[in-house]
Design goal:
The complex is a heterodimer of chains A (about 180) and B (about 325). Chain A has about 180 residues and is of the alpha/beta class. Chain A contains 5 helices and 9 strands, in the order E-H-E-H-E-H-E-H-E-E-E-E-E-H. Chain B has 10 helices and 9 strands. Classes of the chains: A alpha/beta (about 180), B alpha/beta (about 325).
């Protein structure tokens, strides 16, 4: 069972739907989810959301991100929360990015394995990861954002700034599948 | 596992049976694929204990009430049409703010259904609510993008219990269910139409006159794009329509000065309505649309094509 933590994204339920389409049972839980429940999951996906990592309360999630041995995938705000929690830096970008963005893969790593070197993705954010936490590898960038994807496979932490769950993102299912295969 | 329509139908029918049982329900039918599927599932579950209501808000597509009634009749469904258009227009008079418009419409719908439910001694209201409706209506940590009339637009107090068998589905999945139920393509493949109807395609205040303009403009856009798709000039867009801006601009017609309304043409490509990109309609098709709109609707002097994706825009303008 994959727990999908709903941090207020328009697409949380789409993550659930895509997991189901990939044959994975998912369950949506609010961001106030208790640590005990998080610990029962096979893996956790952190959704996007309208808030900012420096302004909002994420309850028991930061400690879980720091301590847990489970695989975690962060999407959009979830990507920023992983960066912020593990010592990276999240700031407002120079420009916002909404809708279509061209993703350039720098290093496929685990998450972007089998994905073309350049592809279209759908994004919706202003904040961005400026500096990654120690031990993370940057996998891709776009014109406006330096870290569109990053990972630390040793710690089982994976994250993307764009939205692999939406239909408009090319290779999105493959990226989610790459994560699921690493659980 | 990809979406399984048969499994979904079985589950939905037994869950409607379990929640309504021997009770009576009214179903809000709009002629779109969502409410038609909800009605078919309800009929399977409850047999004769369902009563289908179509509300004519005055903000429907051209000839909609007659078309939908005929379409439903062909499927053996008796549709009871309630003309509430005068009521909707008077409640919306002078209202400009999009969220206020949506809430007024949501409440009006419920008040009409309450009257019908009382007449029918029905304790339940079945709606074809799908996932984007409650997602975009917001709640909890999720922002309200727009209050869908059937979710965020519902009044706090209502005299019926709600049953929404399609809550977890998206448009493409509803279409799969519709095909599995044997619906004709005129329903299963019908383009989405917003619950509040043309109200969200008239930016700002609604008047019967503006509704007539946008209704005709929508009809022209539908005709021209469907014709272009049939001829293989374009892939049929996921949704395609016209909207009316409150802005007038200057023009010249037969050597006379004109000062008339502006119409926006929108056509998008999508799967589920959650994300969308504007359709790449060829210039000659846009030209045919523009010429017809300005020639056939005398209140319109300028036509624009919307080249915004979702996000940052939404499909509809309000």
């Amino acid at each position: 069972m994959i727990l999908i933590v709903d941090m207020g994204s328009q697409y949380t339920h789409v993550i659930w739907r895509t997991c189901r389409d990939l044959g994975q049972e998912g369950k949506m839980v609010p961001k106030t989810v208790a640590r005990a429940e998080l610990d029962t999951a096979d893996a956790v996906i952190l959704s996007g959301g309208p808030s900012s990592v420096t302004k909002d309360n994420f309850h028991e999630l930061p400690l879980f991100i720091k301590e847990s041995g489970k695989s975690i995938l962060g999407i959009c705000l979830g990507h920023q929360l992983i960066a912020h929690t593990l010592g990276g830096l999240v700031v407002k970008g120079k420009n916002a990015e909404y809708g279509l963005s061209r993703i350039e893969v720098d290093k496929p790593g685990t998450l972007l394995e089998g994905v073309p070197a350049s592809f279209n993705a759908w994004v919706s954010h202003f904040d961005e990861v400026k500096k990654m936490p120690e031990g993370f590898v940057s996998l891709a960038h776009s014109d406006t954002c330096a870290h569109e994807a990053m990972e630390c496979p040793g710690k089982k932490r994976f994250s993307v700034q764009f939205h692999p769950e939406v239909w408009h993102t090319e290779n999105g299912e493959r990226i989610l599948e790459n994560f699921i295969n690493r659980i | 596992m990809p979406f399984n329509a048969e499994k979904f139908i079985d589950g939905a029918v037994s869950s409607i049976k379990a929640s309504i049982g021997p009770g009576r329900a009214i179903i809000a039918v709009s002629g779109g694929v969502d409410s038609s599927v909800a009605a078919a599932l309800a009929s399977k579950a409850l047999g004769k204990n369902v009563y289908c209501v179509f509300v004519d808000t005055g903000l429907m597509r051209k000839d909609e009430a007659r078309l939908v009634k005929a379409m439903m009749a062909r499927g053996g469904v008796k549709l009871n049409v309630v003309d509430a258009s005068a009521d909707f227009f008077s409640a919306l008079k002078g209202v400009e703010e999009p969220e206020k418009k949506r809430k007024i419409i949501g409440e009006k719908f419920i008040r009409v259904f309450e009257v019908e439910a009382k007449k029918q001694k029905a304790a339940y209201l079945i709606q074809g609510t799908i996932a984007p409706d409650w997602i975009e209506s917001g709640g909890g940590s999720r922002e309200t993008i727009k209050s869908h009339h059937n979710v965020g637009g519902l009044p706090e107090k209502m005299g019926m219990r709600l049953v929404e068998p399609l809550r977890d589905l998206y448009k493409h999945e509803v279409r799969i269910v519709a095909r599995a139920l044997g619906f004709p393509p005129e329903i299963s493949e019908r383009q989405p139409f917003p619950g509040p109807g043309l109200a969200v395609r008239i930016v700002g205040e609604i008047t019967p006159g503006k509704a007539a303009i946008v209704r005709e403009a929508c009809f022209i856009v539908e005709e021209e794009l469907e014709r272009a798709a049939e001829k293989g000039k374009i892939e049929k867009p996921w949704q395609y329509f016209a909207a009316l801006l409150p802005t007038k601009t200057v023009g010249v017609r037969g050597d006379e000065r004109a000062y008339q309304y502006t119409v926006v043409v929108r056509a998008v490509r999508s799967l589920d309505g959650m994300t969308a990109n504007f359709s790449h309609v060829p210039p000659e098709v846009l030209q045919a649309i523009s010429t017809r709109i300005t020639n056939e609707i005398r209140e319109v002097g300028r036509v624009l094509y919307d080249i915004t994706n979702k996000p940052p825009a939404t499909v509809e303008l309000e």
